[in-house]
Amino acid sequence: MKKTEHTPGPWRTVGNKAGSWSVLSGNICLAVLARKDCLEWNEANARLIAAAPELLEALQNLQPLVKRYLVLNINAAAWKSAFEKLEEAVSKATSAD
User: Fold this and answer.
1) What is the rounded distance in angstroms from the CA atom of residue 29 to the CA atom of residue 34?
2) What's this model's pTM, rounded to 2 decimal places?
3) Beta strands in 1-97 (DSSP E)
């Protein structure tokens, strides 16, 4: 598993009456979502961002299990496609590209 290069989790969200949402790690502000033209999305986007460390960890925990399954079940085309997407998502989250 790659070394974590992002701010460690857990991350949390905090909203205000104006419809802005912040994503925090402890007292560190990681992101502010304050677009006035899409207030209805600010909270959902903040929650998705805040879940990123846990989502990444869950994907990384699944990688070896799915890889082992694919080795044992060569003809699992749907699993192979899903695994490729999993690998791409983890790579996107852990690469500096």
Assistant:
1) 13
2) 0.72
3) 12-15, 21-25, 28-33
